[in-house]
Design brief:
This protein is of the alpha/beta class. The chain has 2 domains: about 160 residues, Gingipain r, domain 1 (Rossmann fold, 3-Layer(aba) Sandwich), CATH 3.40.50.10390; about 190 residues, 3-Layer(aba) Sandwich (Rossmann fold), CATH 3.40.50. It has 11 helices and 17 strands. The strands form 5 sheets. The protein has a 6-stranded mixed beta sheet, with helices on both faces. Strand 3 and strand 4 form a beta hairpin. Helix 1 packs across helix 2 and helix 2 runs parallel beside helix 4. The longest helix has 20 residues. It is globular and about 60 Å long. The two termini are about 25 Å apart. The relative contact order is 0.14.
């Protein structure tokens, strides 16, 4: 069973009655498109729960929702079913991220916004029991909810069209991370592999990005701004490498996008004009995988933390045949397995990596064929 999780109360409060009704219609279209591909789904309204399974409703808080999903998973098992995936509908203003304590307290992040808390019954679990994705909406001044409607409709159309072949790839990295990125480029078979510098936003040939089926970015990000940056091999100053307006000028229908940028998936209070994650989704991407807080990885081999997660995710994409959510869970498990093979225990950076990387998009979507 695959659950779509929504709060009509919060949707109405954030976006108003008219938009809430459009979201409801888009949810119905997504459920129908999933059903056409044999994906059994049902809607869980947080305030109502699942009465037929004796799962009671609750308030819209991360703690309460995590408990509710755990009870739903157990209830499904009692009737011979299992929970395969959870799709959260809305951004932080509608369904909040879990704001976990930061394992790496020395980097300035007060908390780590995450959806990992919704992927297992135990709060301390590091490996997900089921995949979790989120279809976010626009937030902040001027937000009208239409991005959420668009992304739900996009997900439905992607189900109707079915898996596609990866024909065009795009990679973009800081020069200082050239060596670490090269190994990941190998797993992705990147055709357009750019370094910043020399490439910067003003000299970026957007035709290389336009129409890409797979996009990988290993650039710098900052907490308080939407821009991603390059850096020289001598660890010099940051150079503007990619901006939301660059992405909003291309088409990325069905693309899989993975970013290692610090704060690359931090979308609280933002829209597609001031978030690269939302810009990628707004231009048609099937999913965006990125970090909500400061991410970690070495400049050189061997790979670890975010680099290792990205490597395994692209390997899963290359195998094809699974869903986007299953590939993300498998990549997390492989990253933990390799880390524990190379060191005695997980350190703070490793734990933060597992927490902070999120999947935006429908986790039940079939992966593109390799």
């Amino acid at each position: 069973m695959n659950l779509l999780v929504a709060s009509f109360v919060r949707l109405r409060l954030v976006y108003g009655e008219r938009v809430m009704r459009r979201v409801v219609t888009a949810i119905e279209e997504l459920v129908a498109a999933r059903a056409a591909r044999g994906i059994e789904s049902r809607l869980l309204l947080i305030e109502e729960g699942l009465p037929d399974l004796a799962v009671v409703g609750g308030d819209v808080s991360s703690e309460a929702l995590a408990r509710q999903l755990g009870r739903a998973a157990t209830a499904l098992e009692r009737v011979g079913d299992s929970l395969e995936s959870v799709l959260l509908i809305g951004g932080h203003a509608v369904i909040p991220f879990d704001l976990a304590p930061n394992p790496t307290a020395y980097d300035g992040d007060i908390s780590v916004p995450n959806d990992a808390r919704y992927s297992a019954r135990s709060q301390s679990a590091l490996v997900a029991e089921w995949s979790v994705g989120r279809i976010p909406g626009d937030e902040g001044p001027g937000a009208n909810g239409m991005l959420l409607v668009q992304l739900l409709q996009q997900a439905a159309q992607l189900h109707w069209h079915g898996p596609r072949v990866i024909m065009k790839t795009f990679g973009y990295s800081t020069a200082v991370w050239r060596e670490a990125t090269a190994e990941i480029y190998g797993a992705l078979s990147v055709a357009s592999a750019l370094l910043s510098p020399p490439t910067v936003a003003l000299s970026l040939d957007l035709s290389l990005l336009d129409g890409a089926d797979a996009v990988y970015c290993n650039l710098h990000g900052v907490r308080d701004g939407p821009v991603w940056y390059g850096q020289t091999e001598y660890a010099g100053g940051y150079l503007v490498a990619l901006r939301p307006q660059d992405v909003l000028g291309v088409k990325l229908d069905g693309a899989i996008v993975v970013s290692e940028a610090c704060y690359g998936a931090l979308i609280i209070g933002r829209d597609q004009r001031n978030s690269l994650a939302l810009a990628f989704l707004a231009r048609g991407s099937a999913c965006f995988v990125g970090a909500t807080a400061m991410s970690y990885g070495p400049a050189n081999a061997p790979l670890s933390e975010a680099d290792l997660l990205a490597l395994h995710l692209w390997r899963e994409v290359g195998r094809g045949g699974a869903t986007i959510g299953a590939a993300f869970v498998a990549a997390q498990a492989a990253m933990l397995r390799d880390t524990l093979r190379n060191q005695a225990a997980l350190d703070d950076d490793d734990r933060k990596t597992v927490l902070e990387f999120v999947l935006y998009g429908d986790p039940a979507l079939a992966l593109v064929a390799p």
